[in-house]
Amino acid sequence: MKDISRDLTRRLLSDRKLTQLIVVALVVFLGFSILVPDLFLTPRNFISMAFQIPEIALLALGVMLAMLTAGIDLSVVSMSNLAALSTAYLLVTQVTEGGGNVYVWIVIAIAIGILVGLISGLANGAIIAGIGVTPILATLATLTLYNGIAVGIRNGQSIIGLPPEFTAIGNGSFLGIPIPMIILLVAGVGVALYINKTGLGMQSVLVGANQEAATYSAIGVRKVLLMTYTLSGGLSALAGLIIASRSASANPDYGASYVLLAIVIVVLGGVNPYGGFGTVTGVILATAVLQMVASGFNALRFSQFFYQLAQGFVLIAVMILNTYVDKRRLKAKKDKAPQES
Amino acid sequence: MSYITPLEKRKGLKLWGSPNEIFLIVAIVVLSLIIGLNNSVFFSIATPFDLLRSSLIEILFALGLLIVLISGGIDISFPIIGIFAGYTTVVVMLGLGLDTYSLWIPLVLAAIIGAALGTINALLIAGFGLPTLIATLGTAGMFRGFLLSYIGSVYIANIPLGLDQFSTADLLSVETGQGTLARLHVLVIPILILAIAIAWLLRRTMFGRTVFALGGSEESARRMGMNVRWTKARIYMLVGAISGVAGILYVSLQRKADPYDLYGTELEIIAAVVLGGASIMGGYGTVTGTILGVLLINLIKDNLILLGIPGSWQRAAIGLMLLIGVVGQAISDKRRAKQATVIEEDAS
Amino acid sequence: MFGTEGISKAFGGAKALSNVSFQVSPGDIHCLAGENGSGKSTLIKIMSGVETPDKGTIILGDERLTSLTPRDAVAKGVQVIFQDFSLIPNLTVAENIALSTAVLEKKKLINPSKNREIAARALELIGVDLDLDATVRSIPVSSKQLVAIARAMTQGVKLLFMDEATTALTRKEIDHLFGVVRNLRDQGVATVFVSHKLDEVQEIAESITILRNGEVTAEGPIENFDRKAIAEAMTGQEVSEVRLTPELPGDAPTVLEVEALSSTGRFKNVSFSVKAGEILGITGLLGSGRSEIAEALFGMAPIESGTVTVNGRAVKLSGPRDAVEAGIGYVPQDRLSQGLFLNQSIRKNVMASAIERFLGRGGFVKGKDISETVSNWISDLKIKTDNPENAATSLSGGNQQRVVLAKWLAMSPSVLILNGPTVGVDIGSKKEILEIIRDKALEGMAVVIVSDDIPEIVQIAHRVVVVHQGKLGAELSEADISESRLYEELAA
C-alpha cells in the first residue's frame, strides 16, 4: 500500500498537466469565493457538490479508459440510463411496502444494473475489437441503440417511486461523507489500480500509445479493448445507479448533455485523446473544477445554457492549448537527428 | 503493351449505381411491400408525398454532412447551426419589423449566419488542426449555449409571413381515397436542384476532387500541391451555410421557431449518410446514396406504427440501422483490404 | 546536366552527408546505391527541395543553387517517386495523373475528358496502357508505380528519382518497368535508380554512384564494376574482420526447426534449423523474402504450409502471442513504429511484453520487482539514461535499440529473431549490441539475425543462409563465411 501511495505522489507532482489543473482549480475556487461568498462558500454548497460530483466523474472515468486506448466511448450516458432503468424496474415491481426482503432485492437490483452496464460495455468492445468498427462510430451507434431501447421498453416514461431504502444510498452520508462520494473514491482507486498495477491496465496504456508496437510486443490488443469498454460500461452503470438513487427515479433520456461534459472533463483532466496518457486524479479534479463552475454559475444566476456554452469553450480552449504546447515540444525535437538517412 | 487488368472499374456516369445504392433501393422496395401488405393504408399517394415532406430538410442536412464525411472528418454541430440560424433569423426579422412575404430575406440571412458559425468550425479544424469530433462537439455546446442564453429560449409561434406561408406551398395536392389531402411540397424541386448541384460540385470541380483527395490521402493531396487547409476551411463554411438554410426551412415547415428543436438529430442524419455508403474513413460517398439513406430511415421511422411497432421504438430502430450500417462497412472494408494483398500475390 | 557538388548535411550532431558530388546527364540511367543509413534518402530529399544542404551546390541544368524549395524542384523538373507513390487511392488513374497539372494551372473546374486526354498522352509517352477509369486502390502495385511515373511525365520531369522501385515487383513487372525507363531515356529524361538489388542495377543502369556513411565510396560507368565490387563499396570494410562468434559446443540441442515453410508471394519451401547457443544469419537483398520469413516466425505473416518446431514441440503461429508462448521473441525492423512506445517511459518499454510475468497476488503487478528488473537490464545492456522514467524518445538510436532488445531479453526466449538490429545505430553501439547478442547466445539462447549488413553477419554468425526471391540458396558454415564469399552469394 505504501508503495502505491509513494508512486502516486511522485507521479502527481511530476505531471505538469496535473499541476496546471491544480492551479486552475484554485483560481476557480478563489474566483467564486470572492464573487459570491455567501452562496458559494457555504458547507451546504460543498456538500451539495460532493453529492453531484460522483455520477459525472464516474461517467468521465469510463470515457477516460476508452481514451487511454486511443478510442472514445460516447455511449456512457445511454448505458448509465439503461442500467438505472433495469435496477429501477426490478425495485418497483418486486419491492412491496415494508416487506422484509427489501434489502435482498436492492442487492439483486444493483447487481442486475451493473450487469446490464457490463454487458452493454462488452457489446461495445466486441463491435470495436471484434468487428473492427472505429470507436467513434461504434459508440455513436450504440448510444442511439441503447437510448432507443431504454425509451422503447418504457414507452418514453420514467420509472418513479423507488423505495426509500434504495434512495437512502444516494442521499445518505457515512461519517459525514456522502455515500456517492465514497463510491466514487473506491471506484477511482480501483480504476487507478487497474491502470497502474494490473497487466491489462498497463497494457491498455501501451495499446493507446502505439497499437502497432503493442501487437509487435505480443500484447493481446483485442482482450485489452474488450476489457476497456466493458469496464466503461460498468462505471456507467454505477453512475446510473447513483443517479437513480439520488433522484428516486430512472429516466431514459437523463443527462443528454453529459456526454459533452464528460469529454470536457476528460480533456481538462489531462487525458490525451490520442491515447497513452491520463490519470484518475486528473479526471476527478477536473470534475470538481467543473462542478465548482456549475455551482458558481448557479450562484451568479447564470443559466444552465451558459454553463453549456462555457463547457464548449473550455473544451476548445484546452485542446488549442495542448496543440500549441505539443507543437512547440515537437519542434524542439525536430532539430535533433532523424534516425535513418 | 497492355497486360494489366484492374479489379474494379468505375464508370463516369452511373445510371444503375453502385452495389450499395442498389441494396438501398431493394431495401426500400421490400420494406414498402412488407409495410403495405401489413396495412394497406400504406399504398396511397399520400405515403410518398408525406415521406418526401418529412425527408426533405434532412436530405439537405445530410448532403452537407456528406461533404464533411468524404473529406475524412465528422461534424456533429450542424443541426445546432441549423436551429441557431433559423431561430436567430426569425428573431432578427421580427426585431427589425421585417414581417414580410419575402422568402429571400430569411434564406439569405440564415445562410449567412450558418456560414459564420461554420467559419468558426473551419478556424478550429483547418486553422488549429483540432480533431473534428471534439472540435464540433465543443462548438455544438458553445452554439447551443449561446443561442439559449443570449438569443432566446422562447418558442416563437408567429414567424414572418413568408416563412409561414411557405409551409403550405404545395406543388400538387391530391385527394386520397380516405378523403384527406395528399400534398407534395414545392421544396422538392429546389432540393432536387441543390442535390444535383452538390453532386456536380463533388465530381466536376477542383474543390470537390480535393475533398475526395483529402479523404483518400491527405498527405498525398498536399504533395500534389492541393491547398489542403483552404479546402478544409471552405468545407466547413459551406456546410454551415447549407445547415443554416436547412434550419430556416425547418422553421418554416414547422411553422414555429423553437430553439430547443433539432438537438440530437445529428445521429439520425449520420445514420442516413453512413447507410448511404459514405465511409467515416473518408474518400467515398454519393449524393444518390445519401438521399436513399435518408428515405430509408424515414420510411422506417414514419411507418413503424403501420407495422404494429409503437412510436417509442423509433430511436431504437435508428440506432439499429446505424449499427448495421457501420458494421457492414467495417466488414466490407476488411474484406477489401484482404483482397488487395491477395491480388498482388497472384501477380507474382 | 544534373547533380550535386560537395554537398554536406548534418542533423543535430550526426553527419548524414559529407562532401557528396555526383552527376547525371539527360538520357542517362544512373544508379544510386547504398544500404540503409548510407545517406541516399537525404541526398534525394536535398535534390527535391525537402531538405537544404549545409554546404555545397545543387546543379539543375544551367542553374547552380545552394537551396531549393519543393515547388522550385518540381518546376525545374525534379520528381521523386517514393515507395508509397503519393497517389490518392480513391481517385481514378486518369485523375491521379492529370490533376496535378490542373492544380498547377489553378483550375476551378474539372474537365474529365481533358483529364483523360492528358493521362492517355502521358501513358503513351512511357509506353503503357492502363484503364483510365479504374480507381488507384484497385490496381496492383506495379500499375500504381506506372501511374506515379506517368504523373511525373505530365509535370515535365527532367530528372526522375525512383526510390527502391523494384521492391514489390515480380520479374515480369520489372521487365516492363525497365522498358518504361528506357522509354524515358529516349525522351531525354535523366533517371536515377536508388537500389540495393545488384543484379537489376547491372541490368538497367549505365553509371553508378555508391554511398556509404554519407560519403561517395565509388562511382563511374557500370562496366567498371562487377557485383562484388559494388557490394563491397556499399558495405565497406570499417568494422574489423575479427569474428565475435564463440565456439559452439558440439552437443548443443536443436532449438528451432523450420521445415518446408511456404507462404504464397512471400517465400517458398524454407527449411533450416538453429541450435542452442548458435547464431544463424539470414541474408538476402531487399525484397528477397528475408524479412517475411522472420515475420512469419513471429506470427505476423501467414504461413500456408510447413512446420515450425521449437524445443521439440510443433507450434502454430497465428499471432505474436503464439510465438511468445512458443518461446520466440522478435526485434522488428522498424524500431520507431514497431519496436518502441516513443512517448512512454523507458521502464514501460522494457516491461511491455513481460508485464504478465510480473503479476503477483490478486493480479497486481509487483512494482518493486519490475523496477529492479528494469534497472538490471539498463545496466546489463548499458542503456545510457539517468532515469528510467524518461520517455524513450530521449534516447539515441543505439540506446533505443537496446531498450527493444531488453524488452525481449526480459522474456527469456528460447529463440530470439532480430531483423536489422543495427540499422541506424552508431558504430560504437553497433559493436556493443553485437556483443550483447553474442553473450546471450553463449548463455544458450538460439539467435537468428536477419540482415543485409555483410560485415555484421560475418562477425557474428555461426552459419549463414542466403535468401533469393523467397527461396533459400546457399548455406555457409563457419569456415566458408567471409565477406567476399557473401557478396558473391548475394549477387548470384
Explain briefly what this protein structure is.
The complex is a heterotrimer of chains A (341), B (348) and C (492). Chain A is an all-alpha fold. Chain A has 15 helices and four strands.
CATH topology call of chain A:
ABC transporter involved in vitamin B12 uptake, BtuC
Q: Please give the alpha-carbon distance between the first and last residues of chain B.
A: 19 Å
Helix content estimate of chain B = 55-70%
Helical percent range of chain A?
A: over 70%
In terms of quaternary structure, what is this? Answer: heterotrimer
Query: What is the first-to-last residue Cα distance of chain A?
Result: 49 Å
SSE topology string of chain A: HHHHHHHEHEEHHHHEHHH
Which stretches of chain B are low in confidence, meaning pLDDT under 50 for 5 or more residues running?
1-16, 342-348
The total count of strands of chain B amounts to 2
Strand order of the largest sheet of chain A: 1-4
Mean pLDDT of chain B: 86
Secondary-structure content class of chain B: mainly alpha
- Please tell me the overall pLDDT of chain A: 90
Estimate what percentage of residues of chain A fall within beta strands.
Answer: under 5%
Descriptive account of the structure:
The complex is a heterotrimer of chains A (341), B (348) and C (492). The termini of chain A are far apart. In chain A, helix 4 (43-68) packs antiparallel against helix 12 (221-247). Helix content of chain A is 77%, strand content 2%. Chain A has one domain (2-325): ABC transporter involved in vitamin B12 uptake, BtuC (Orthogonal Bundle). Chain A is built from 15 helices and four strands. Chain B is globular and about 65 Å long. In chain B, a hairpin with a 5-residue loop joins strand 1 and strand 2 (181-185). In chain C, helix 3 (93-104) runs parallel beside helix 5 (141-154). Classes of the chains: A mainly alpha (341), B mainly alpha (348), C alpha/beta (492). Chains in contact: A-B, A-C, B-C.
